[in-house]
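Help needed: design a sequence for this.
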């Protein structure tokens, strides 16, 4: 745990140092969006990688957090900093509700994945049908730049905010690697019946996992609202959010600490490179995601993070290459 904590501190300091050396909006935006993708992947990895519950509808928690953040400011007139904790809590509670309805009846694997996808689609339709969400037009948060309003004049401020979220997600993941709860979660992932036989309560453990995962996903949604000042049902509950989260985790390496962040960074860099080479071709990012995912599954089943682990095992330095 101490080594993981030290590595997270080094990573945080390195990002802060790199962003302090430049005022380039392009570079700061790249770092911000890479960290954003990393947060999505890390949130999905908690449930999908460590819990073994593959979700196709994590956009549900993203959208709930985004709308809670926007509505708290627009309808209740609250300060964004005050809205943020309740928005994250609402996402976690939504995760508990979904988990209670699915895990209680033993849904797992493809059944759980399809149910989560259905939940996200139902919420997308509902958000487009009711008036308080703005319907299909969505909601626009007014721009009032300032630290007190969680709206910064430079991308650097958003990088710092997002870095805090990512750091907390990494700490939570490191805790899962070394805590008793994390051991229970991985035991349920590997063999639920065997875990139950030795006294583990699979329902309680999986509910804890989905709540933690949903909380970080909701934080990403709240962050999105503050950066872009707009949210609509298609963005909030669309399949693209779920795909970005799960593909980043799978490409980087499921059930690892740094894998999802590496996967998200790789995919984001590929998307930017493709955009510069081929322009704004419709759907090109999804094509890249598909190709990269097929290649990773075929040739790197452990993901990018698993390469270091395999090298460590090959040369006898397993701990050094642990991700």
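Sure. Designed sequence:
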């Amino acid at each position: 745990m101490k080594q993981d904590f030290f590595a997270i501190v080094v990573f945080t300091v390195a990002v802060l140092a790199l962003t302090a050396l430049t005022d380039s909006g392009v570079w700061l935006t790249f770092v911000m969006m890479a960290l954003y993708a990393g947060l999505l992947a890390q949130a999905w990895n908690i449930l999908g990688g460590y819990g073994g519950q593959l979700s196709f509808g994590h956009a549900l928690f993203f959208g709930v957090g985004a709308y809670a953040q926007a509505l708290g400011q627009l309808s209740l007139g609250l300060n964004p900093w005050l809205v943020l904790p309740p928005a994250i809590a609402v996402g976690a509670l939504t995760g508990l509700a979904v988990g209670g309805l699915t895990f209680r009846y033993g849904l797992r694997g493809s059944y759980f994945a399809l149910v989560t996808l259905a939940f996200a689609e139902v919420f997308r339709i509902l958000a487009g049908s009711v008036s308080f969400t703005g319907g299909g037009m969505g909601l626009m948060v007014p721009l009032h730049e300032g630290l007190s309003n969680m709206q910064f004049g430079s991308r650097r401020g958003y990088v710092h905010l997002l870095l805090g979220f990512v750091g907390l997600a990494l700490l939570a993941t490191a805790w899962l690697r070394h805590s008793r709860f994390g051991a229970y979660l991985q035991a349920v992932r590997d063999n639920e019946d065997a875990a139950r036989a030795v006294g583990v309560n699979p329902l309680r453990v999986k509910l804890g996992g989905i709540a933690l995962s949903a909380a970080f996903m909701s934080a990403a949604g709240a962050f999105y609202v503050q950066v872009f000042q707009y949210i609509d049902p298609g963005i909030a509950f669309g399949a693209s959010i779920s795909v970005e989260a799960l593909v980043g985790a799978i490409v980087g390496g499921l059930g690892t600490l740094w894998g999802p962040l590496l996967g998200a960074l790789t995919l984001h860099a590929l998307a930017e490179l493709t955009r510069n080479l081929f322009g704004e071709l419709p759907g090109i990012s999804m094509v890249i995601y598909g190709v990269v995912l097929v290649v990773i599954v075929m040739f790197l089943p452990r993901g990018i993070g698993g390469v270091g682990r395999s090298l460590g095992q090959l040369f006898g330095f397993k701990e050094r290459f642990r991700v």
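The chain has a mean pLDDT of 88.
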